[in-house]
Design a protein that fits this description.
Helix content is 24%, strand content 26%. By secondary structure, the protein is an alpha/beta fold.
């Protein structure tokens, strides 16, 4: 089923929630519903039913910091090559009050695999004081894209767009191999030379200062994108938990604490099965832990929700933030794979139910072939066609946007759960996946997903704090669907 975009935002009208009423929205494979409002429901007195989901707003957990996507150079290039009207459409789809209400973003520090080519901000070999540092490259496409997103958000909220910046590699002259930002020999020699530890920390600081001069404030940084992987064909650098710990407490932590104390530092920024090991190594060292806000995680090796839960209980004062996810390249953007949406929602629901405070997707935009990407050309048809999926894929030749299934699925959470919301308790006796929140505006938000082939009927009950009694409604959840229910708490 094809959903190309022209006047997308006119397709969705959102109802105001009134007391006693449940307003809800659905995306379902068997229908044309895509974040579509349904006929409101009404609570009744509680009743008996075999399948039930019970919301207990009195039991609260972590506070949500937000949802978003990444301003890579590839995404920025696609955006720059859209007509002005489609640029506005994209900005509204992601950052407006009528769109996904994205409140976070990720930004590479220098080039990554989703860049047009390798670049850095100081290529002068041996420039330990970084006198030649400049972000002029980013002012052409990346920063204008960010500023339009910030401007759109400012039209409906005073809350900032919180950006997490992550490096893939320092300039080659700072690395052991001294010749490339890549890791052609694997992890051997793909690390930071000890004499440049302080220069690399200064590089972070200068990046933050340079962006601030462009009126783009960076909320946080990760020490390294995917430090446990050493890519031979794109930018990377290797850290172990102990080397990253020592770098934080000896160089990066003191530098940012002095120059940018408001900026948060996150460790790991890699797959979830590594979370406990990295947290134990770094957070057990008080001299390193004092500089670190939390842990960044990716999803590429599976759920590993147990790792998140264990890490939280070991170090409850440290937050966990999901900072990257993507799907394999979509071969037919007009008829995308439905399960990709379910994968995203499954991961977000599972992460949040295990203490994650937010979720940042990868590229905001890519072209019809999932590019551009300079990683190739060996593993696909060429460097310009060697890519992955994105929530919005673009036919540049015909200037058409194709939102993918996971665009709709993620919107069922991001749009309704603003920063400052708290997760609340859900007891679920069904085979459905669910999570719930209490927003700063005192609305209860319940998200329910059905990945199965059949419809499932159930009772949704809400425990009233004043009396401890339940109010309830009955709903039939369609096969392969996701729905968001909102009501006043």
């Amino acid at each position: 089923m094809t959903f190309q975009i022209s006047t997308f935002l006119l397709m969705i009208c959102f109802h105001k929630v009134v007391d006693g009423e449940v307003v809800w929205y659905r995306t379902a494979q068997s229908t044309t519903d895509r974040l579509t409002p349904q006929a409101p429901l009404n609570f009744s007195a509680d009743f008996e039913y075999n399948n039930e989901i019970v919301v207990n707003r009195s039991q609260t957990y972590q506070t949500i910091v937000g949802f978003g996507g990444a301003f890579t150079e590839s995404a920025s290039y696609i955006f720059a090559n859209l007509t002005s009207s489609l640029q506005q459409e994209v900005i509204k789809m992601y950052f407006s009050a009528d769109g996904h209400q994205y409140s976070m973003a990720r930004l590479p520090i220098g080039s990554c695999d989703f860049s047009l080519q390798n670049y850095n901000y100081d290529s002068t070999k041996g420039d330990v004081n970084l006198n030649d540092f400049t972000i002029a490259h980013d002012t052409k496409m990346i920063i204008p894209f960010i500023k339009l997103a910030m401007s759109q958000r400012s039209q409906w909220t005073k809350d900032p767009l919180n950006i997490v910046a992550s490096p893939w590699s320092p300039p080659a002259w700072m690395k052991q191999n001294q010749s490339t930002a890549y890791c052609p020999t694997g992890c051997k020699f793909c690390n930071l030379r000890e004499e440049y530890h302080n220069s690399w920390a200064l590089y972070f600081s200068k990046f933050l200062s340079a962006y601030a001069k462009e009126n783009v404030q960076i909320w946080g940084v990760t020490v390294q994108n995917e430090p446990g992987y050493c890519p031979p064909d794109y930018e990377g650098m290797h850290w172990t938990p102990s080397t990253q710990r020592d770098y934080i407490k000896q160089s990066l932590g003191p530098r940012l604490s002095s120059d940018h104390p408001e900026v948060k530092i996150l460790i790991l920024d890699h797959n979830k099965e590594m979370t406990v090991e990295w947290a134990e190594t770094i957070f057990s060292d008080a001299d390193a832990a004092k500089y670190v806000w939390g842990t960044a995680v990716h999803w590429y090796t599976g759920d590993h929700f147990d790792q998140l839960n264990t890490t939280h209980y070991l170090f409850p004062e440290k937050a966990i933030l999901a900072t990257e996810a993507t799907e394999v390249r979509e071969t037919d953007p007009k008829n995308p794979v439905w399960e990709k949406g379910e994968h995203y929602a499954h991961d977000i629901i599972g992460d949040i139910n295990n203490w994650v405070v937010g979720f940042i997707d990868w590229n905001l935009l890519l072209d019809y072939n999932g590019g551009p990407n300079h990683k190739g050309p060996d593993e696909c048809e060429g460097a310009d066609k060697c890519g992955s999926d994105a929530m919005i894929l673009v036919d540049l030749a015909n200037q058409v946007l194709y939102p993918q299934v996971f665009y709709w699925y993620v919107g069922h959470i991001s749009k309704f759960v603003p920063p400052g919301s708290v997760r609340i308790d859900v007891k679920n006796t069904t085979s459905l996946e669910s999570t719930a929140f209490l927003t700063p505006n005192k609305e209860c938000i319940l998200v329910i997903m059905n990945k199965q082939d059949g419809n499932i009927s159930l009772k949704v009950a809400d425990i009233l704090p004043s009396s401890n009694k339940k109010q309830a409604f009955k709903i039939s959840v369609l096969a392969h669907s996701i729905q968001t229910f909102t009501y006043n708490c």
